[in-house]
Amino acid sequence: MKTLNDFDFKDKKALIRVDFNVPLNEKFEVTDATRIVSAKPTLVKIMEDGGSCILMSHLGRPKGVQDEFSLKHIVSKVEDVLGVEVKFVSDCVGPNAEEAAKNLKPGEILLLENLRFHNEEEAGDTDFAKKLSVLGDVYVNDAFGTAHRAHASTTIVADFFPKKKCFGYLLAQEIESIEKVMQTGEKPVLAVLGGAKVSSKITIIENILDKVDHLIIGGGMTFTFVKAQGGSVGDSICEDDKMELALSILKQAKQKNVQIHLPVDVVAADAFSNDANTKVMDVYHITEGWQGLDAGPKSLENFKSVVLQSKTILWNGPLGVFEMERFANGTIELGNFIAESTKNGAFSLVGGGDSVAAVKEFGFEDKVSYVSTGGGAMLESLEGKTLPGIAAILN
Ligand code: AMP
Protein backbone atom coordinates (compact mmCIF):
# COMPACT_ATOMS: atom_id res chain seq x y z
CA MET A 1 0.00 0.00 0.00
CA LYS A 2 1.60 3.26 -1.13
CA THR A 3 1.38 6.01 1.46
CA LEU A 4 2.85 9.45 1.88
CA ASN A 5 5.92 7.92 3.48
CA ASP A 6 6.95 6.48 0.10
CA PHE A 7 7.36 9.96 -1.35
CA ASP A 8 9.61 12.93 -0.76
CA PHE A 9 7.53 15.98 -1.57
CA LYS A 10 10.43 18.45 -1.76
CA ASP A 11 9.59 21.01 -4.46
CA LYS A 12 6.59 18.89 -5.47
CA LYS A 13 3.02 20.06 -5.78
CA ALA A 14 0.70 17.54 -4.15
CA LEU A 15 -2.82 17.43 -5.56
CA ILE A 16 -4.81 16.20 -2.59
CA ARG A 17 -8.43 15.02 -2.46
CA VAL A 18 -9.59 15.88 1.04
CA ASP A 19 -13.05 15.62 2.54
CA PHE A 20 -13.81 19.16 3.69
CA ASN A 21 -17.54 18.61 3.38
CA VAL A 22 -18.06 20.28 6.76
CA PRO A 23 -21.28 21.57 8.31
CA LEU A 24 -21.87 25.35 8.12
CA ASN A 25 -24.33 27.47 10.10
CA GLU A 26 -26.53 30.23 8.64
CA LYS A 27 -23.59 32.66 8.86
CA PHE A 28 -21.52 30.22 6.79
CA GLU A 29 -19.27 29.43 9.74
CA VAL A 30 -17.86 25.93 10.16
CA THR A 31 -19.63 24.30 13.12
CA ASP A 32 -17.57 21.09 13.23
CA ALA A 33 -13.99 21.11 11.94
CA THR A 34 -13.29 17.42 12.60
CA ARG A 35 -12.73 16.65 8.93
CA ILE A 36 -10.26 19.49 8.52
CA VAL A 37 -8.39 18.46 11.66
CA SER A 38 -8.28 14.86 10.38
CA ALA A 39 -6.50 15.95 7.19
CA LYS A 40 -3.84 17.93 9.05
CA PRO A 41 -1.18 15.20 9.47
CA THR A 42 -1.10 14.63 5.71
CA LEU A 43 -0.73 18.31 4.92
CA VAL A 44 1.92 18.83 7.61
CA LYS A 45 4.05 15.97 6.25
CA ILE A 46 3.96 17.39 2.72
CA MET A 47 4.81 20.90 3.87
CA GLU A 48 7.61 19.67 6.15
CA ASP A 49 9.10 17.81 3.20
CA GLY A 50 9.22 21.15 1.39
CA GLY A 51 6.26 20.55 -0.91
CA SER A 52 3.07 22.50 -1.50
CA CYS A 53 -0.57 21.39 -1.17
CA ILE A 54 -3.39 21.87 -3.65
CA LEU A 55 -6.60 20.88 -1.92
CA MET A 56 -9.67 19.57 -3.75
CA SER A 57 -12.97 18.93 -2.00
CA HIS A 58 -16.70 19.03 -2.45
CA LEU A 59 -19.10 20.83 -0.12
CA GLY A 60 -22.74 19.82 0.03
CA ARG A 61 -24.82 19.06 -3.01
CA PRO A 62 -24.84 22.21 -5.15
CA LYS A 63 -26.76 22.45 -8.39
CA GLY A 64 -24.22 24.21 -10.57
CA VAL A 65 -22.43 27.21 -9.06
CA GLN A 66 -24.15 28.32 -5.82
CA ASP A 67 -22.44 30.80 -3.52
CA GLU A 68 -23.77 29.13 -0.39
CA PHE A 69 -21.74 26.02 -1.27
CA SER A 70 -18.52 27.92 -1.98
CA LEU A 71 -15.45 26.61 -0.21
CA LYS A 72 -14.37 30.22 0.33
CA HIS A 73 -16.53 30.07 3.48
CA ILE A 74 -14.15 27.59 5.10
CA VAL A 75 -10.81 29.24 4.25
CA SER A 76 -10.39 30.97 7.61
CA LYS A 77 -11.22 27.75 9.50
CA VAL A 78 -8.64 25.81 7.47
CA GLU A 79 -6.13 28.56 8.29
CA ASP A 80 -6.99 28.30 12.01
CA VAL A 81 -6.52 24.54 12.01
CA LEU A 82 -3.29 24.50 9.99
CA GLY A 83 -1.80 27.70 11.38
CA VAL A 84 -0.73 28.95 7.94
CA GLU A 85 -2.21 31.19 5.27
CA VAL A 86 -4.46 29.40 2.76
CA LYS A 87 -4.85 30.74 -0.77
CA PHE A 88 -8.16 30.26 -2.52
CA VAL A 89 -9.05 30.14 -6.19
CA SER A 90 -12.62 30.51 -7.41
CA ASP A 91 -12.59 27.52 -9.74
CA CYS A 92 -11.08 24.05 -9.48
CA VAL A 93 -10.01 23.77 -13.14
CA GLY A 94 -9.14 26.16 -15.97
CA PRO A 95 -6.71 29.08 -16.39
CA ASN A 96 -7.17 30.68 -12.95
CA ALA A 97 -6.68 27.41 -11.12
CA GLU A 98 -3.67 26.56 -13.28
CA GLU A 99 -2.10 29.98 -12.69
CA ALA A 100 -2.65 29.75 -8.93
CA ALA A 101 -1.18 26.23 -8.85
CA LYS A 102 1.83 27.29 -10.93
CA ASN A 103 2.61 30.19 -8.60
CA LEU A 104 2.42 28.07 -5.48
CA LYS A 105 5.70 27.94 -3.54
CA PRO A 106 7.00 25.21 -1.21
CA GLY A 107 5.14 25.26 2.10
CA GLU A 108 2.11 27.01 0.63
CA ILE A 109 -1.47 25.78 0.49
CA LEU A 110 -4.06 26.39 -2.18
CA LEU A 111 -7.73 25.50 -1.77
CA LEU A 112 -9.68 25.00 -4.98
CA GLU A 113 -13.35 25.92 -5.32
CA ASN A 114 -16.05 23.25 -4.81
CA LEU A 115 -15.50 20.36 -7.25
CA ARG A 116 -19.25 19.80 -7.54
CA PHE A 117 -19.77 23.19 -9.17
CA HIS A 118 -18.94 21.08 -12.25
CA ASN A 119 -21.32 18.22 -13.05
CA GLU A 120 -18.35 16.37 -14.54
CA GLU A 121 -17.04 15.68 -11.04
CA GLU A 122 -19.79 13.27 -9.99
CA ALA A 123 -20.08 11.93 -13.53
CA GLY A 124 -16.45 10.78 -13.28
CA ASP A 125 -15.61 12.65 -16.48
CA THR A 126 -12.16 11.86 -17.87
CA ASP A 127 -11.52 15.27 -19.46
CA PHE A 128 -12.42 17.02 -16.24
CA ALA A 129 -10.12 14.66 -14.31
CA LYS A 130 -7.35 15.49 -16.77
CA LYS A 131 -7.86 19.20 -16.15
CA LEU A 132 -7.52 18.58 -12.42
CA SER A 133 -4.45 16.44 -12.94
CA VAL A 134 -2.39 19.18 -14.62
CA LEU A 135 -2.43 21.12 -11.35
CA GLY A 136 -0.15 18.77 -9.39
CA ASP A 137 2.88 16.48 -9.58
CA VAL A 138 1.69 13.79 -7.17
CA TYR A 139 -1.91 12.72 -6.44
CA VAL A 140 -2.85 12.01 -2.84
CA ASN A 141 -6.25 10.67 -1.84
CA ASP A 142 -7.10 11.35 1.80
CA ALA A 143 -10.89 11.39 1.54
CA PHE A 144 -12.35 8.17 2.90
CA GLY A 145 -15.85 9.65 3.00
CA THR A 146 -16.02 9.71 -0.80
CA ALA A 147 -13.80 6.69 -1.54
CA HIS A 148 -16.89 4.62 -2.47
CA ARG A 149 -17.67 7.01 -5.33
CA ALA A 150 -16.02 6.77 -8.74
CA HIS A 151 -15.93 10.55 -9.11
CA ALA A 152 -13.36 12.45 -11.17
CA SER A 153 -11.36 13.69 -8.16
CA THR A 154 -11.61 10.51 -6.10
CA THR A 155 -10.91 7.87 -8.72
CA ILE A 156 -10.53 8.89 -12.37
CA VAL A 157 -7.81 11.49 -11.75
CA ALA A 158 -5.53 8.78 -10.33
CA ASP A 159 -5.10 7.35 -13.86
CA PHE A 160 -3.08 10.44 -14.77
CA PHE A 161 -0.52 9.68 -12.03
CA PRO A 162 0.42 6.07 -12.78
CA LYS A 163 3.52 6.04 -10.54
CA LYS A 164 2.87 9.17 -8.51
CA LYS A 165 -0.18 8.46 -6.43
CA CYS A 166 -0.66 7.43 -2.84
CA PHE A 167 -2.98 7.37 0.16
CA GLY A 168 -2.90 10.16 2.70
CA TYR A 169 -2.49 9.26 6.36
CA LEU A 170 -6.21 9.41 7.12
CA LEU A 171 -7.26 7.10 4.31
CA ALA A 172 -4.38 4.72 5.08
CA GLN A 173 -5.55 4.57 8.70
CA GLU A 174 -9.10 3.77 7.62
CA ILE A 175 -7.88 0.97 5.37
CA GLU A 176 -5.64 -0.47 8.09
CA SER A 177 -8.46 -0.38 10.64
CA ILE A 178 -10.83 -2.24 8.35
CA GLU A 179 -8.12 -4.79 7.52
CA LYS A 180 -7.50 -5.33 11.22
CA VAL A 181 -11.11 -6.33 11.67
CA MET A 182 -11.69 -8.17 8.42
CA GLN A 183 -8.36 -9.92 7.89
CA THR A 184 -5.59 -9.60 10.40
CA GLY A 185 -7.30 -9.05 13.73
CA GLU A 186 -6.36 -11.05 16.80
CA LYS A 187 -9.00 -13.62 17.74
CA PRO A 188 -11.63 -13.80 19.08
CA VAL A 189 -13.09 -11.31 16.62
CA LEU A 190 -16.47 -9.80 17.49
CA ALA A 191 -18.85 -7.71 15.40
CA VAL A 192 -21.71 -5.87 17.04
CA LEU A 193 -24.38 -4.97 14.54
CA GLY A 194 -27.30 -2.87 15.67
CA GLY A 195 -29.56 -0.33 14.05
CA ALA A 196 -33.04 -0.42 12.70
CA LYS A 197 -33.41 -2.91 9.89
CA VAL A 198 -32.10 -6.28 8.78
CA SER A 199 -32.67 -5.28 5.16
CA SER A 200 -30.02 -2.55 5.29
CA LYS A 201 -27.43 -4.83 6.93
CA ILE A 202 -27.89 -8.15 5.10
CA THR A 203 -24.82 -7.88 2.91
CA ILE A 204 -22.71 -6.83 5.87
CA ILE A 205 -23.95 -9.72 8.00
CA GLU A 206 -23.33 -12.26 5.25
CA ASN A 207 -19.85 -10.93 4.52
CA ILE A 208 -18.90 -10.70 8.15
CA LEU A 209 -19.89 -14.29 9.00
CA ASP A 210 -16.66 -15.38 7.31
CA LYS A 211 -14.54 -13.07 9.42
CA VAL A 212 -15.78 -13.18 12.99
CA ASP A 213 -16.04 -15.61 15.89
CA HIS A 214 -18.91 -13.81 17.61
CA LEU A 215 -21.71 -11.66 16.27
CA ILE A 216 -23.96 -9.62 18.52
CA ILE A 217 -27.16 -8.63 16.73
CA GLY A 218 -29.12 -5.90 18.50
CA GLY A 219 -31.35 -2.89 17.95
CA GLY A 220 -34.44 -3.14 15.80
CA MET A 221 -32.99 -6.08 13.86
CA THR A 222 -33.49 -8.28 16.92
CA PHE A 223 -37.21 -8.68 16.37
CA THR A 224 -37.04 -10.13 12.88
CA PHE A 225 -34.73 -12.85 14.25
CA VAL A 226 -36.92 -13.43 17.31
CA LYS A 227 -40.21 -13.62 15.40
CA ALA A 228 -38.62 -15.92 12.82
CA GLN A 229 -37.84 -18.31 15.69
CA GLY A 230 -41.40 -18.27 16.98
CA GLY A 231 -41.27 -15.36 19.46
CA SER A 232 -44.00 -12.76 20.01
CA VAL A 233 -42.58 -9.32 19.36
CA GLY A 234 -45.69 -7.18 19.98
CA ASP A 235 -45.46 -3.87 18.13
CA SER A 236 -41.66 -3.97 17.80
CA ILE A 237 -40.14 -3.05 14.46
CA CYS A 238 -40.03 -6.25 12.41
CA GLU A 239 -39.51 -7.12 8.76
CA ASP A 240 -41.74 -10.12 8.15
CA ASP A 241 -40.39 -10.55 4.64
CA LYS A 242 -36.88 -10.98 6.05
CA MET A 243 -37.69 -13.77 8.50
CA GLU A 244 -36.57 -16.51 6.10
CA LEU A 245 -33.34 -14.66 5.64
CA ALA A 246 -32.89 -14.34 9.40
CA LEU A 247 -33.24 -18.12 9.75
CA SER A 248 -30.77 -18.66 6.94
CA ILE A 249 -28.27 -16.34 8.64
CA LEU A 250 -28.62 -18.32 11.88
CA LYS A 251 -28.02 -21.54 9.96
CA GLN A 252 -25.01 -20.18 8.10
CA ALA A 253 -23.57 -18.96 11.39
CA LYS A 254 -23.82 -22.44 12.86
CA GLN A 255 -22.09 -23.96 9.84
CA LYS A 256 -19.34 -21.37 10.06
CA ASN A 257 -18.91 -21.78 13.78
CA VAL A 258 -19.89 -18.19 14.49
CA GLN A 259 -21.68 -17.65 17.79
CA ILE A 260 -24.63 -15.31 17.40
CA HIS A 261 -25.78 -13.42 20.47
CA LEU A 262 -29.23 -11.83 20.44
CA PRO A 263 -30.82 -9.87 23.28
CA VAL A 264 -32.72 -12.11 25.71
CA ASP A 265 -34.67 -9.23 27.26
CA VAL A 266 -35.65 -5.74 26.17
CA VAL A 267 -36.85 -2.46 27.58
CA ALA A 268 -40.33 -2.38 26.06
CA ALA A 269 -42.52 0.71 25.80
CA ASP A 270 -46.25 1.22 25.19
CA ALA A 271 -45.47 3.95 22.63
CA PHE A 272 -42.54 5.09 20.48
CA SER A 273 -41.92 7.99 22.83
CA ASN A 274 -39.53 9.11 25.53
CA ASP A 275 -42.59 9.60 27.80
CA ALA A 276 -43.97 6.10 27.28
CA ASN A 277 -44.52 3.60 30.07
CA THR A 278 -41.71 1.05 30.06
CA LYS A 279 -41.19 -2.48 31.29
CA VAL A 280 -38.41 -5.03 30.94
CA MET A 281 -39.76 -8.02 29.01
CA ASP A 282 -38.47 -11.36 27.80
CA VAL A 283 -37.63 -10.80 24.14
CA TYR A 284 -39.71 -13.85 23.09
CA HIS A 285 -42.79 -12.66 24.97
CA ILE A 286 -43.44 -9.01 24.26
CA THR A 287 -47.01 -7.99 25.08
CA GLU A 288 -49.28 -6.83 22.24
CA GLY A 289 -49.28 -3.03 22.07
CA TRP A 290 -45.71 -2.84 23.42
CA GLN A 291 -42.46 -2.53 21.49
CA GLY A 292 -38.85 -3.28 22.35
CA LEU A 293 -36.79 -0.09 22.16
CA ASP A 294 -33.59 -1.00 24.00
CA ALA A 295 -31.58 -3.98 25.21
CA GLY A 296 -32.54 -5.21 28.69
CA PRO A 297 -30.25 -5.86 31.71
CA LYS A 298 -29.73 -9.60 31.18
CA SER A 299 -28.83 -9.02 27.54
CA LEU A 300 -26.30 -6.40 28.54
CA GLU A 301 -24.73 -8.78 31.05
CA ASN A 302 -24.35 -11.39 28.30
CA PHE A 303 -22.98 -8.84 25.84
CA LYS A 304 -20.51 -7.61 28.42
CA SER A 305 -18.91 -11.00 28.80
CA VAL A 306 -18.62 -11.44 25.00
CA VAL A 307 -17.13 -7.97 24.53
CA LEU A 308 -14.62 -8.42 27.35
CA GLN A 309 -13.29 -11.71 25.97
CA SER A 310 -12.90 -10.32 22.43
CA LYS A 311 -9.55 -9.09 21.11
CA THR A 312 -10.89 -7.40 17.99
CA ILE A 313 -14.20 -5.56 17.94
CA LEU A 314 -16.23 -3.92 15.22
CA TRP A 315 -19.25 -1.84 16.22
CA ASN A 316 -21.84 -0.71 13.73
CA GLY A 317 -25.29 0.43 14.78
CA PRO A 318 -26.92 1.30 18.13
CA LEU A 319 -28.50 -1.28 20.45
CA GLY A 320 -31.63 0.81 20.93
CA VAL A 321 -33.37 4.05 20.07
CA PHE A 322 -30.47 6.02 21.56
CA GLU A 323 -31.86 9.34 20.31
CA MET A 324 -34.38 9.09 23.18
CA GLU A 325 -32.74 9.27 26.59
CA ARG A 326 -34.91 6.53 28.10
CA PHE A 327 -33.73 4.04 25.44
CA ALA A 328 -30.07 5.02 25.24
CA ASN A 329 -28.82 2.87 28.11
CA GLY A 330 -28.02 -0.24 26.04
CA THR A 331 -25.97 1.74 23.56
CA ILE A 332 -24.13 3.60 26.33
CA GLU A 333 -23.42 0.40 28.24
CA LEU A 334 -22.12 -1.27 25.10
CA GLY A 335 -19.83 1.74 24.61
CA ASN A 336 -18.59 1.25 28.19
CA PHE A 337 -17.87 -2.46 27.61
CA ILE A 338 -16.01 -1.74 24.37
CA ALA A 339 -14.03 1.03 26.09
CA GLU A 340 -13.08 -1.39 28.89
CA SER A 341 -12.08 -4.10 26.44
CA THR A 342 -10.02 -1.58 24.48
CA LYS A 343 -8.28 -0.55 27.68
CA ASN A 344 -7.45 -4.21 28.23
CA GLY A 345 -5.73 -4.35 24.84
CA ALA A 346 -8.46 -5.12 22.32
CA PHE A 347 -8.59 -3.28 18.99
CA SER A 348 -11.96 -1.58 18.48
CA LEU A 349 -13.31 0.05 15.35
CA VAL A 350 -16.54 2.02 15.31
CA GLY A 351 -17.91 2.75 11.89
CA GLY A 352 -20.86 3.51 9.75
CA GLY A 353 -23.62 6.01 10.46
CA ASP A 354 -25.42 6.14 13.75
CA SER A 355 -22.92 4.33 15.93
CA VAL A 356 -20.39 7.07 15.15
CA ALA A 357 -22.97 9.68 16.21
CA ALA A 358 -23.64 7.70 19.40
CA VAL A 359 -19.94 7.32 20.20
CA LYS A 360 -19.42 11.06 19.81
CA GLU A 361 -22.55 12.00 21.74
CA PHE A 362 -21.73 9.76 24.68
CA GLY A 363 -18.01 10.61 24.80
CA PHE A 364 -16.43 7.30 23.76
CA GLU A 365 -14.42 8.74 20.90
CA ASP A 366 -11.12 8.62 22.77
CA LYS A 367 -11.87 5.31 24.45
CA VAL A 368 -12.05 3.16 21.32
CA SER A 369 -9.16 2.43 18.96
CA TYR A 370 -10.57 4.07 15.85
CA VAL A 371 -13.71 5.92 14.79
CA SER A 372 -14.23 5.85 11.05
CA THR A 373 -14.75 9.12 9.17
CA GLY A 374 -16.83 7.62 6.35
CA GLY A 375 -20.44 6.44 6.66
CA GLY A 376 -21.31 4.97 3.27
CA ALA A 377 -17.69 4.12 2.50
CA MET A 378 -17.41 2.18 5.75
CA LEU A 379 -20.63 0.26 5.14
CA GLU A 380 -19.49 -0.71 1.64
CA SER A 381 -16.12 -1.84 3.01
CA LEU A 382 -17.87 -4.03 5.58
CA GLU A 383 -19.96 -5.47 2.76
CA GLY A 384 -16.66 -6.65 1.29
CA LYS A 385 -16.67 -4.28 -1.67
CA THR A 386 -13.44 -2.80 -3.01
CA LEU A 387 -13.98 0.95 -3.02
CA PRO A 388 -13.17 2.61 -6.36
CA GLY A 389 -11.15 5.39 -4.70
CA ILE A 390 -8.96 2.81 -3.00
CA ALA A 391 -8.66 0.56 -6.06
CA ALA A 392 -7.54 3.55 -8.13
CA ILE A 393 -4.47 4.02 -5.94
CA LEU A 394 -3.67 0.33 -5.67
CA ASN A 395 -3.88 -0.35 -9.42
P1 AMP B 1 -28.98 2.19 11.29
O1 AMP B 1 -28.89 3.46 10.51
O2 AMP B 1 -29.49 1.03 10.54
O3 AMP B 1 -27.71 1.91 12.06
O4 AMP B 1 -30.14 2.44 12.36
C1 AMP B 1 -30.03 3.38 13.37
C2 AMP B 1 -31.39 3.62 13.94
O5 AMP B 1 -31.90 2.43 14.49
C3 AMP B 1 -31.37 4.63 15.06
O6 AMP B 1 -32.04 5.78 14.63
C4 AMP B 1 -32.14 3.93 16.18
O7 AMP B 1 -33.09 4.77 16.80
C5 AMP B 1 -32.83 2.81 15.48
N1 AMP B 1 -33.14 1.69 16.38
C6 AMP B 1 -32.32 1.03 17.18
N2 AMP B 1 -33.00 0.13 17.91
C7 AMP B 1 -34.30 0.22 17.57
C8 AMP B 1 -35.49 -0.43 18.01
N3 AMP B 1 -35.45 -1.38 18.93
N4 AMP B 1 -36.65 -0.06 17.44
C9 AMP B 1 -36.68 0.91 16.49
N5 AMP B 1 -35.59 1.55 16.05
C10 AMP B 1 -34.41 1.22 16.58
Return the string of H and E elements: EHEHEHEHHEEHEHEHHEEEEHEHEHEHH
Tell me the helix content: 25-40%
Instruction: Kindly identify the CATH topology of the largest domain.
Output: Rossmann fold
What is the CA-based Rg, rounded? 23 Å
Q: Can you describe this structure?
A:
With 395 residues, this protein is α/β, with parallel strands linked by helices. It has two domains: 4-170, Phosphoglycerate kinase, N-terminal domain (Rossmann fold, 3-Layer(aba) Sandwich), CATH 3.40.50; 177-382, Phosphoglycerate kinase, N-terminal domain (Rossmann fold). The chain is 35% helix and 16% strand. It is built from 14 helices and 15 strands. It has helices at 34-49, 75-82, 95-102, 119-123, 126-133, 169-184, 202-208, 222-228, 243-255, 297-309, 329-343, 354-361, 375-382, 388-394; strands at residues 13-17, 52-56, 86-89, 109-112, 138-141, 165-167, 189-193, 214-217, 259-261, 265-269, 278-282, 291-295, 312-316, 347-350, 370-371. A six-stranded parallel β-sheet has the order 3-4-2-1-5-6, sandwiched between helices. A six-stranded parallel β-sheet has the order 9-8-7-13-14-15, sandwiched between helices. It has a three-stranded antiparallel β-sheet with strand order 11-10-12. α1 crosses α2, α8 crosses α9 (243-255) and α10 runs parallel beside α11 (329-343). It is elongated. It starts with 12 loop residues before the first strand and ends with a helix. The relative contact order is 0.12. The mean pLDDT is 96. The structure holds adenosine monophosphate (AMP). Residues 195-197, 200, 219-220, 237, 292-293, 317-318, 320-321, 323, 353-354 line the site of adenosine monophosphate.
